[in-house]
Design a protein that fits this description.
- With 262 residues, the protein is mostly helical.
- It has one domain.
- α1 packs across α14, α3 packs antiparallel against α11 and α12 crosses α14.
């Protein structure tokens, strides 16, 4: 179903109403709410990245997988990951799998994250290494971030592990990585704002099947290919409504689709 609005201002009012509706705490079963049970910035950052890697498929399955994973490994996420040793710690994730990613992929992800944390102390420090306030968006540091993390992997290109951490330069929308950045850079009832050196105006909207379909149904965008160019174009369109915070509308657009309201 396509909705028609007489002008941009009318559409902006509709999007702002949606934002208010969905910005209430625990307003949905979204996996982001899992992070709200953590207190440590280090734990939030690391778990946010792990959750984002597995944020594909049905929301309830993602939440179930992550909840069981936390219960099995440790509530001190950062300490577990930075000290992760496959030979002695893989037993905590034995039998774990999510769709086509298995315990070996999970173990490799933990090992790579451990290498990053030991070298940089935080994921933020790695991202900031190539971040510039003068850049139009966060593509340059995001490419650097993903390529650096993947460089620690022993898994070859094309393996199921590589699906967990896509590289933007391959023209993917990088929905999960942009979701991770939204959680950590923006600040409201949903997102945490703990990466204070990154401007939310530089973020790119996380585009999944729901955001793709809903944004087209609302007449926000006409592009048909769901790729990186789609994400960049949609972000620039949303900047007309809110130049400082275009990704503000992501949660609402996504959940309109999840709930089948559009």
């Amino acid at each position: 179903m396509k909705k028609h609005y007489r002008n941009r201002q009318e559409l902006k009012k509709y999007l702002d109403r949606l934002y208010l509706k969905y910005s209430r705490k625990y307003s949905s079963g979204d996996p982001v709410w899992i992070l709200h049970h953590l207190k440590s910035k280090k734990d939030i950052e690391v778990l946010a990245f792990i959750i984002s890697c597995f944020s594909y498929g049905r929301v309830e399955l993602i939440v179930d997988f992550i909840s069981k994973l936390i219960e099995s490994i440790s509530k001190d996420i950062y300490e577990f990951i930075i000290n992760y040793n496959p030979s002695k710690d893989k037993k905590y994730i034995r039998g774990f799998y999510y769709r086509f990613n298995n315990e070996n992929d999970l173990s490799e992800l933990f090992r790579c994250l451990s290498c990053i944390l030991k070298k940089y102390n935080s994921l933020e420090n790695l991202f900031l290494e190539k971040y510039s306030i003068n850049d139009e968006n966060i593509l340059t540091p995001l490419n650097h971030f993903t390529k650096t993390l993947n460089s620690f992997s022993r898994k070859r290109q094309g393996s199921s592990f590589r699906y967990l951490v896509p590289v933007p330069e391959n023209n993917s929308t990088c929905k999960r990585l942009n979701l991770f950045l939204r959680w950590l850079v923006r600040k409201d009832n949903i997102d945490f704002g703990i990466w204070k050196k990154v401007s939310k105006s530089k973020l790119i909207i996380p585009v999944d099947a729901h955001v793709y379909r809903v944004s087209r149904a609302l007449g926000l965008i006409k592009r048909k290919s769901c790729d990186l160019k789609f994400a960049l174009e949609l972000t620039n369109i949303l900047k007309r409504f809110n130049p400082e915070d275009p990704v503000k509308y992501d949660f609402a657009l996504c959940h309109l689709g999840i709930e089948g309201l559009l």
